[in-house]
TrEMBL record:
EC number: 4.1.1.28
Pfam families for this protein: Pyridoxal_deC
UniProt region (Disordered), positions on chain: 15-34
InterPro entries (alphabetical): Aromatic_deC, PyrdxlP-dep_de-COase, PyrdxlP-dep_Trfase, PyrdxlP-dep_Trfase_major, PyrdxlP-dep_Trfase_small, Pyridoxal-P_BS
Annotated gene: DDC
GO biological process terms held by the UniProt record: amino acid metabolic process; carboxylic acid metabolic process; catecholamine biosynthetic process; serotonin biosynthetic process
Protein name: Aromatic-L-amino-acid decarboxylase
EC top class named in words: lyase
Gene Ontology CC terms, in alphabetical order: cytoplasm
Pathway assigned to this chain's UniProt record: Catecholamine biosynthesis; dopamine biosynthesis; dopamine from L-tyrosine: step 2/2
A GO term, aspect molecular function: aromatic-L-amino-acid decarboxylase activity
Lineage: Eukaryota, Metazoa, Chordata, Craniata, Vertebrata
Co-factor requirement: pyridoxal 5'-phosphate
Entry-annotated residues carrying N6-(pyridoxal phosphate)lysine: K303
């Protein structure tokens, strides 16, 4: 699940270093990425007041609007581009399109149809295989879930239903209970705890596959576990591969795990909650290689793509796998278009029946920043993480505990776990920055994550000076 969900870099108070603090003197890499376009506080106030007027005008004139829209299913897609803009649009253009494109179908169709289009926009930004996109008549498609936890649970439940029906079709006398007690799901030992929770809710066994030296699940380790379990009469059916683990942002080997899952006819779900945003940059897209083997894929734009919580993007190759597991149609939920094949009924794609208009904020962000602006934002954060990594390399007291791939740096003082626990206590007690730890191969490790929209190189350097000074104070106290 998310790296950034459990640790954040707070803006460091820009205080002068006190006399005697350790200062960094070596040259640092210069961040080449320009900041993406953002509103300053003055423009934000102005636009905020305009939006209040927009809402007030709507409420004042609401009696002049129809209760039920005139638009027909499919009205929206021809009115918007097929992909996100490369460059930012103006705020005025977006607001004008709200009235022209969204409001005619605001009672319902716009909510559904914009979500379908925005998920296709985002899928194209990631260069997902065509099978995951809804398009005009695709079998796959995307849906906005509330969190990666929900997406994992939905995938597991859909996979459970699919394998149960397949086995019962082959052996009609086989009961659901007899199948359930033998089902086994798998994930890396580095997977987020929400994967284990999905197994508990789904009532199936979940086994952790030992990761390798780079904290990645490998195909050979998965295959060994499958052979053992099949020999014991168990039924492997579901695998979660993590891209960007919470502890250290490691990546399971999709190019090995994927073929194993396909060969064994198991559902493969990819959890890229934090790291997925980086895949919009061509230089990081290779981290998603192997996605073509997956049945479902998820990441959280609300973590690192400037979309406010909650917004968890989930795609499936075959939408009928989800719909088949969750479709219920009581009379009070029936509507005239449900059997037309012209609409996507997202209540069958998620746990709750009700849903918010979450695609609207995606539409605003993608248009306000453009793809290039979002790429610049990601690249800047990664460069700042490497800047912090560089500072650590200059100080022989510290060690880096995992490869720095994106915006997370795992580090510690050379020494005991107790020493590093004491350092973290000093850091967090000072309340200038906040770090969350993890354990890697038995070592207590500190995690420094770049995830604030407004973070700059200055903040990274101030944070480093603060950590360095606290480390000096701690080591001095240890000697006394």
């Amino acid at each position: 699940m998310a790296v950034a969900s459990s640790v954040c870099l707070l803006t460091v108070r820009e205080e002068r270093r006190e006399k005697g603090e350790r200062a960094s003197t070596s040259p640092l890499p210069v961040c080449p990425w320009r900041s993406p376009p953002t509103m300053n506080s003055r423009e934000f106030r102005r636009r905020g007041k305009e939006m209040v007027d927009f809402v007030a005008d709507y409420l004042e004139g609401i009696e002049g609007r129809q209760v039920y829209p005139d638009v027909q299913p499919g009205y929206l897609r021809p009115l918007v581009p097929t992909s996100a803009p490369e460059e930012p649009d103006t705020f005025e253009d977006i607001i004008n399109d709200v009235e022209k494109i969204i409001m005619p179908g605001a009672a319902s169709p716009a909510c559904t149809e914009l979500e379908t289009v925005m998920m296709d926009w985002l899928g194209k930004m990631l260069k997902l295989p065509e099978a995951f996109l809804a398009g005009e008549a695709g079998e796959g498609g995307g849906v906005i879930q509330g969190s990666a936890s929900e997406a994992t649970l939905m995938a597991l439940l859909a996979a459970r239903t699919k394998v149960t029906r397949r086995l019962q079709a082959a052996s009609p006398g086989l009961t659901q209970g007899a199948i359930m007690e033998k089902l086994v799901a798998y994930s890396s030992d580095q997977a987020h705890s929400s994967v284990e929770r999905a197994g508990l809710i789904g009532g199936v066994k979940l086994k952790a596959i030992p990761s390798d030296g780079k904290f990645a699940m490998r195909g050979s380790a998965l295959q060994e576990a499958l052979e053992r379990d099949k020999a014991e009469g168990l039924i492997p059916f579901f695998v979660v591969a993590t891209l960007g683990t919470t502890s250290c942002c490691s990546f399971d080997n999709l190019l090995e795990v994927g073929p194993v899952c396909n060969k064994e006819d198991m559902w493969l779900h990819i959890d890229a909650a934090y790291a997925g945003s980086s895949f919009i940059c061509p230089e990081f897209r290779h981290l998603l290689n192997g996605v073509e083997f997956a049945d479902s894929f998820n990441f959280n734009p609300h973590k690192w793509l400037l979309v406010n919580f909650d917004c968890s993007a989930m795609w499936v190759k075959n939408r009928t796998d989800l719909i088949g597991a969750f479709k219920l149609d009581p009379l009070y939920l029936k509507h005239s278009h449900q059997d037309s094949g012209l609409i996507t009924d997202y209540r069958h794609w998620q746990l709750p029946l009700g849903r918010r208009f979450r695609s609207l904020k995606m539409w605003f962000v993608f248009r306000m920043y453009g793809i290039k602006g979002l790429q610049a934002y990601i690249r800047k954060h990664i460069q700042l993480a490497h800047e912090f990594e560089h500072l650590l390399h200059q100080d022989p007291r510290f060690e880096i505990c995992a490869e720095v791939t994106l915006g997370l740096v795992c580090f510690r003082l050379k020494g005991s776990n107790k020493l590093n626990e004491a350092l973290l206590e000093r850091i967090n007690s000072a309340k200038k920055i906040h770090l969350v730890p993890c354990h890697l191969k038995g070592k207590f490790v500190l995690r420094f994550a770049i995830c604030s929209r407004t973070v700059e190189s200055t903040h990274v350097r101030l944070a480093w000076d603060h950590i360095s000074q606290l480390a000096s104070d701690l080591l001095r106290a240890e000697k006394e």
